[in-house]
Specification:
- This is Glycosidase.
- Belongs to the glycosyl hydrolase 130 family.
- With 407 residues, this protein is mainly beta.
- It has 2 domains: 68 residues, no CATH class; 313 residues, Tachylectin-2, Chain A.
- The protein has 5 helices and 24 strands.
- A 6-stranded antiparallel β-sheet has the order 5-6-11-10-9-8, with no helix packed on it. Strands 1, 2, 3, 4 and 7 form a 5-stranded antiparallel β-sheet that branches.
- Strand 23 and strand 24 form a beta hairpin.
- The longest helix is centred in the first third of the chain and has 15 residues.
Length: 407
């Protein structure tokens, strides 16, 4: 028989946050000092400037805590610590890389270059964020990744003001004194609540010669997706803004590295099946477009999309693509678009360049080989790619060999 027992929850006179703060305030000075010192000793080896972090958090929650007494510095730190929690950004997976030329190429050996690699990190709750690595590509094509820092930064964000829009975007600042691998761009807005996915970086060179790094990404709210745009001149200050227009409500947009006939240009997959070519006078507004590439071979029968921004080579625009076939098998191919009119397809690979083999099928999401951006160095395609949505590696292929494999 169903139970007739009822339960009554206590209704406190104060909110829970206030009760937590009151417990800290009730500690005698010696116990307060000992507990704070224990926590600082425990976490100072895991994070930078832990006291400043705790104090910042105290000021953030101060609006929901009402204290009728003076709060000492140590009390403020310990209260702030009780409203912090750690999150392992890359605990579940680290995948879907994108690569661009590093803005600092000083002290690099001849015919070598320094690069920045962005990655999609997934942690608890399947929340995606953007992490970074740096590395070198030697003249012979050898790839070396610099060891990441063990201490991620807790970045401060602010809303972009001066625009008559409730979701104009956010600005993220860091002083540039830390290793780039310490920067983690974590979801902070309602549109990003479910994650920031698949950043496609590109070094954009404008007509005046000014270089800006842009990155299109998918913002997932938990119910819907939309395209947003990251911009940074130097990887020290970032702006994240939503994109507008009827072509931005899907995944997988990738910006061309320069204007085409005076307009910004983009590849997209607005119908979730084909690759589209779009142009716009406003980098934040994208609508319309023309279908440029359709699925043709069995390994792309389900859908086809880009694996990052087009790369300009002597022969035209090189686009690394992904195709989805039977059993949700993601493979990587490539195609060549006309330099002057990128809506024209000149050639494409009949067979995949990369597909998961028997040793690479298992992982967070099996049967997936995927990338969000490559680069060309000394006429060699340098392609970072993810395996089974779990880890990332590199492949290289000379352009002559790649182009010869196209029909």
């Amino acid at each position: 028989m169903p139970s007739t027992e009822t339960y009554k929850y206590a209704v406190p006179d104060q909110p829970r946050a206030q009760r937590i703060a009151d417990r800290v305030l009730a500690l005698d000075p010696a116990s307060l000092h000992d507990e704070l010192q224990r926590i600082l000793d425990d976490f100072s080896g895991r994070h930078r400037e832990v006291p400043s972090l705790f104090l910042r958090r105290f000021h953030e929650v101060d609006g929901i805590i009402v204290c009728d007494c003076e709060v000492t510095h140590e009390q403020a730190l310990l209260i702030g610590a009780h409203f912090c929690n750690e999150y392992s950004y890359e605990a579940a997976a680290l995948f879907n890389p994108s690569i661009v030329l590093h803005p600092d190429q000083s002290a690099v050996p001849e015919n070598s270059l320094r690069f920045i690699l962005s990655l999609r990190g997934v942690g608890e709750g399947h929340i995606s964020s953007v992490t970074f690595r740096t590395g070198f590509c030697a003249a012979d094509g050898t790839i070396a990744i610099n060891p990441p820092s063990p201490m991620p930064l807790v970045l401060e964000t602010e809303n972009i003001s001066g625009e008559d829009r409730p979701d104009a975007g956010i600005r993220i600042k860091c002083d540039g004194s830390h290793d780039l691998s310490e920067i983690v761009i974590f979801p902070t807005t309602p549109s990003q609540r479910g994650g920031i996915e698949d950043l496609r970086l590109v070094r954009f060179l404008d007509d005046d010669g000014r270089a800006t790094y842009f990155g299109t990404y998918t913002a997932f709210s938990g119910q819907s997706v939309r395209q947003e745009l990251l911009s940074t001149p130097d990887f020290r200050t970032f702006e994240l803004r939503p994109l507008r227009g009827d072509a931005t409500g899907s995944k997988g947009m990738a910006l061309f590295p320069r204007r085409i006939a005076g307009h910004f240009a983009m590849l997209g997959r607005e119908d979730n099946e084909n690759i589209w070519f779009l142009t716009s006078a406003d980098i934040h507004d994208w609508s319309g477009g023309a279908k440029a590439i359709e699925p043709r071979w069995p390994w792309e029968f389900v859908q086809i999309g880009n694996c990052g921004s087009p790369i300009e080579i002597d022969e035209g625009w090189l686009v690394v693509t992904h195709g989805v076939g039977a059993v949700r098998n993601y493979c990587i191919g490539a195609c060549l678009l006309d330099r002057d009119d990128p809506s024209k397809l000149l050639a494409r690979t009949k067979l995949p360049l990369l597909r998961s083999d028997m040793d690479e099928r298992e992982g967070y999401v099996p049967n997936v080989a995927y990338s969000c951006g490559a680069m060309v160095h000394n006429r060699v395609l340098v392609l970072p790619y993810a395996i089974a949505d779990s880890f990332t590696t590199f492949a290289t292929i000379p352009l002559e060999r790649l182009l010869a494999a196209m029909d």
